[in-house]
Amino acid sequence: MSLLTSPPRAVLFDLDGTLIDSLPDLVAAVNRMLAAWDRAPLSANAVKALVGGGAAILVEQAFLTTGGPVDLPVEDLLHRFMADYEPRSAESTRPWPAVIETLTRLKEAGLALAVCTNKPSGATKVVLAKLGLADFFDVVVGANDTPALKPDPIHIQVILDSLGVTAEQAVMVGDSYNDIAAARAAGVATVAVSFGYAHGPVAELGANRIIDDYRELPALLGLDRPPPGLADLQPAFAREMARDSDILRDLLAGDDRAALSDHVHAMRGKCAMFGQPDLADRLGGLEEETLRASPAELERLAQPIFTRLERLASETP
C-alpha cells in the first residue's frame, strides 16, 4: 500500500546507516583516535551505538566510554578526528544493497533527491563522490550547513525550501530517532530502514512505514502502482497473498520441490501484476533455488518474503 495518495515530488535520505554502511570506516577511525591516547579500542557495536548525533558527539562519547575526557577541547579532538577520517572515509564503506538501482528508479520518475545528514559536510561530499552517489542528489545538507542538527526540523526545512517543495510533497527515509523525529516535526512523511544503526527497535521510531529492502521503496512511494483496473482489487490481492503464504510454508516443510517451484512462480506473477516488484524479485530468487538448494537455505530465502507479506497484510485495509 502506498505511503501517500500520489507520488511525492522529493525524497530526502539520511546517509550513515540509511544509504550507506559506513560503520567499518567509522570504527577504524575511532579506534585510531583512541590508540593515539592509549585507550582501548571500541567494538563495532559500541561505535554503532554512538553514530547518528554528529561527529562531535561520536568523538566525545568515544572518550567518555573508554575512561573519561582528555585534556583537550572537543573542538580540537574533532578536528584531528576528521582530518584522519575524511580522506579514508570510503575505504570499506559501501551503499546498502539495491541503493543505486533504487535511486536510479526515483530519478527516472522525476523525483528530486536530497541528503539530510548530521555527518560533517566535507566528509559527506567525499563519501558520496567516492561511492558514485553524488550525481543522484539535487541538494546535500550536512552538519555544517544549518544552525542545528537533526532532530531539529530546520535541517529538513532547509532542504524543502531549496527544492521548492512543501512538507506534504516530500518523504524522509532514515534509520534513527533523529531522522524520524526531525521529519515528523517538519510535517514530512517518514520511512525507516530496518537494517540501519537504530539504537533500539526500529518499530518504536514512529515512522509511517518500515522497509527491509530498498526494492520496496518505489512501490511504497506510489511509483509502481498496479494497472487502474486492478487498483480496487488490492485488498483481495493481500488476502490471496496471505493464503499463498500459508501454502508456501507447507510446501517448504514438504518434499515436493516441483509443486514448490510452481507455487512460487505463480506468486511471483501475481506480485509483478499488482505493483510489488520487490516481492516479485525475492520470489524469483527463491524460485531459482527451489530445485537445488537445501531445505535450510530455502527457509533462509523465504523468511524475508514472509516478513514482507505480513507487512503487506497489515498495511492493506
TrEMBL record:
Gene Ontology, cellular component aspect: cytosol
Entry annotated with the keyword Transmembrane: no
Binding site for Mg(2+): D14, D16, D175
Top-level lineage group: Bacteria
Pathway as given in its UniProt record: Organic acid metabolism; glycolate biosynthesis; glycolate from 2-phosphoglycolate: step 1/1
Database matches in InterPro entries: HAD-like_hydrolase_sf, HAD-like_sf, HAD-SF_hydro_IA, HAD_2, HAD_sf, HPT_dom_sf, PGP-like_dom2, PGPase_prok
Cofactor(s) demanded: Mg(2+)
Similarity comment text for this entry: Belongs to the HAD-like hydrolase superfamily. CbbY/CbbZ/Gph/YieH family.
The protein's role, per its UniProt record: Specifically catalyzes the dephosphorylation of 2-phosphoglycolate. Is involved in the dissimilation of the intracellular 2-phosphoglycolate formed during the DNA repair of 3'-phosphoglycolate ends, a major class of DNA lesions induced by oxidative stress.
The name this protein goes by in its record: Phosphoglycolate phosphatase
Organism for this UniProt entry: Magnetospirillum fulvum
Biological classification of the source: Bacteria, Pseudomonadati, Pseudomonadota, Alphaproteobacteria, Rhodospirillales
